[in-house]
Design brief:
heterodimer; A: 259 residues; mainly alpha; MetI-like fold; 0% strand; disordered C terminus; B: 349 residues; alpha+beta; Rossmann fold; OB fold (Dihydrolipoamide Acetyltransferase, E2P); six-stranded mixed beta sheet; five-stranded antiparallel beta sheet
Chain lengths: 259, 349
């Protein structure tokens, strides 16, 4: 292997892995038990798992049909639509949070109407956490499912049509089962992204323990007051990320590629 | 008249414009080379492809007509068998066959009963709980046939149903397919590039080249009197075009062929390669057709050697391996080719 490639590659690996090693090395292993059972920590973890799961469910309900439209329909301007949908992938999450605030906030374009009609204001609620996470994470699901749909043999859908199945029946009974591994992989990616969401959440939902303070927010706050707690919380998130990666590689991604 | 269609499709370089009609109980083979537009025709009949013009009429009911009538595929009275069976991999074989009835609103129990009965008919009794991946190629194609026929469609479309099978399996599945097509009361359209499939399964053949019907007739007519080089090669004949006067045909490309009957006007001359004999010197005696030609290539073909010849005409001769060895021919060699006038088929163009 040529040195001009090998040396930077080794540096890159070191750069990516060392911080994680540092986290594990500095972890106050004996204090993990008490830290995890402390007030607030369990709450933040529970809130994170709940909101990420809800965001994934919303993304599935809305994102799978969107992926189908992008992959299968004869809609004009599909490429423009795809570009629009993937903007949140590259947008700084804080900007996403600001944008959500401007639209769904009490003075926002939609939010004002909602507030006048129902007296309900979305920002700074647990629902706002779910909305912020969905905004940031759904594109991961859409892109993943669209890829699975494109890779799936569309002639199975032709066969279903010649057997009397309309497009909805075909989608339910043929397309969906065929791309299920891709949907599962997309859902896991989406869930992991939602779990780690910080910028859009703190901007749009704030940082209230018990209602909007998710794990990443708790980590950031703890680092200033109680570094030991921050390390423990970070370890928990690292463990969840690694578990996700293993799940994806071992079970779903592997099958999605071969399906 | 059960199926009647005119199909016009323009897709880039390919322009398809064909008329088909298939009576009840008839099996029409659409025979043609790859890229001739055969599958396009089938996809239009199925409703999977929107044509640029024409009509599709089943039992007198418009299924598609320019832009006023356009039934989507799932509302057409059709069944279709695909080249690589396309059984749904996530469903059992029984569920695959029951898929059509279920989609058309038959209750689950009745659909499964119908599926089981059809699996029995195609010789797959007891295999209904398997996944398609656990079937052999022949079994999968039988299951696909059962899936297409279980709904008793008025039109059965078969897209190269045997070409994905190995030679031995193809033989048995072809025989079975023949049996089911004989029993089938509706109109069947079989797309194939294999003349054996067309001859064995069809009651009528249309030959499609470059999107046009170039010949139509019974399998025997097409095999005996090919009208294009493609068909002639498929059925193993050499086709020469010329114009007749008396018992001589002057070929368009030069040279002349003596025939047994009096002919006049533009005609085709078809020569069977096994009726052509080769000699090192001009043969004496009766043959009226003797041409000095040059050997271009010689390829073993079963027990014979197929010799492609060029000269004042292009001809092919099948000679036995023994006589080929005795002649001691090498490519480029000068030979005399002879054919009895009575061995030459001649028919109007």
């Amino acid at each position: 292997m040529p040195a001009p490639l090998l040396v930077p590659a080794v540096l890159a690996v070191a750069f990516l892995v060392l911080p994680l090693v540092g986290l594990v090395v500095r972890a106050p292993w004996s204090a993990i038990g008490p830290q995890l059972t402390r007030d607030g920590v369990g709450e933040a973890l529970r809130l994170s798992l709940l909101s990420a799961t809800l965001a994934t469910l919303v993304s599935l309900v809305l994102g799978v049909p969107l992926a189908w439209v992008l992959a299968r329909s004869a809609l004009r301007g599909r490429s423009v639509l795809r570009a629009l949908v993937t903007v949140p992938l590259v947008l700084p999450p804080v900007v996403g949070g600001v944008a959500l605030f401007l639209v769904l906030g009490r003075q926002g374009i939609v939010g004002r109407w909602l507030f006048e009609a129902t007296g309900f204001s979305l920002p700074f609620t647990t629902a706002a956490v779910v909305v912020a996470e969905t905004f940031v994470a759904m594109p991961f699901l859409v892109i993943s499912v669209e890829g699975a749909l494109r890779a799936a043999d569309a002639r199975f859908e032709d066969a279903a049509a010649t057997l009397g199945a309309d497009r909805w029946t075909t989608f339910r009974r043929v397309t969906l089962p065929l791309v299920a591994p891709g949907i599962a992989a997309g859902a896991v990616l989406c869930w992991a992204r939602a779990l780690g969401e910080f910028g859009a959440t703190i901007t749009f939902a704030g940082n209230f323990p018990g209602t909007t303070q998710t794990m990443p927010l708790a980590v950031y706050l703890a680092l200033q007051r109680d570094p030991e707690a921050a390390i423990v919380l970070s370890l928990v998130l690292l463990a969840v990320s690694l578990a996700t990666l293993l799940l994806l590689r071992g079970r779903w991604l592997g099958r999605a590629v071969h399906a | 008249m059960s199926l009647e269609a005119r199909i016009v499709v323009r897709r880039g370089a390919l322009e398809v414009d064909v008329e088909l009609s298939v009576a009840d109980g008839e099996v029409l083979a659409v025979l043609g080379p790859n890229g001739a537009g055969k599958s396009t025709i089938l996809r239009v009949l199925a409703g999977l492809l929107t044509p640029d013009g024409g009509r599709v009429v089943v039992d007198g009911d418009q299924v598609w007509h320019d832009d006023d009538v356009a039934l989507p595929p799932h509302r057409r009275p059709i069944g279709m068998v695909f080249q690589d069976h396309l059984l749904f991999p996530h469903l059992s074989v029984t569920e695959n066959v029951a898929f059509g009835p279920r989609s058309r609103g038959v209750p689950r129990v009745a659909a499964r009963a119908a599926a089981t009965a059809w699996l029995d008919r195609v010789g797959l009794a007891g295999l209904g709980d398997r996944r398609p991946g656990q079937l052999s190629g022949g079994q999968a194609q039988r299951a696909a046939l059962a899936r297409a026929l279980v709904g008793e469609p008025r039109v059965l479309l078969l897209d190269e149903p045997l070409s994905a099978l190995d030679a031995r399996t193809r033989l048995s599945v072809r025989a079975e397919l023949h049996r089911h097509l004989t029993d089938y009361a509706g109109s069947a359209v079989l797309v194939t590039h294999d003349p054996v499939d067309a001859m064995a399964l069809a009651t009528r053949v249309v030959v499609v080249e470059d999107g046009r019907v170039v010949q139509a007739g019974t399998p025997a007519e097409v095999a005996r009197r090919p009208r294009t080089d493609y068909v002639a090669r498929l059925v193993g004949l050499v086709l020469l075009a010329g114009s007749g006067a008396g018992t001589t045909v002057a070929l368009d490309g030069g040279g002349a062929v003596a025939v047994a009957a009096e002919v006049s006007g533009p005609v085709f001359v078809a020569v069977r390669p096994e009726s052509v004999s080769l000699h090192l010197s001009r043969p004496d005696g009766s043959p009226r057709n003797v041409w000095p030609l040059r050997l271009v290539t010689a390829t073993p073909h079963g027990s014979v050697v197929r010799c492609d010849l060029a000269g004042e005409m292009a001809l092919t001769a099948d000679v036995t391996a023994t006589s080929f060895a005795e002649l001691g021919l090498a490519p480029g060699a000068e030979v005399w080719a002879s054919v009895q006038a009575s061995e030459v088929a001649v028919y109007p163009r």
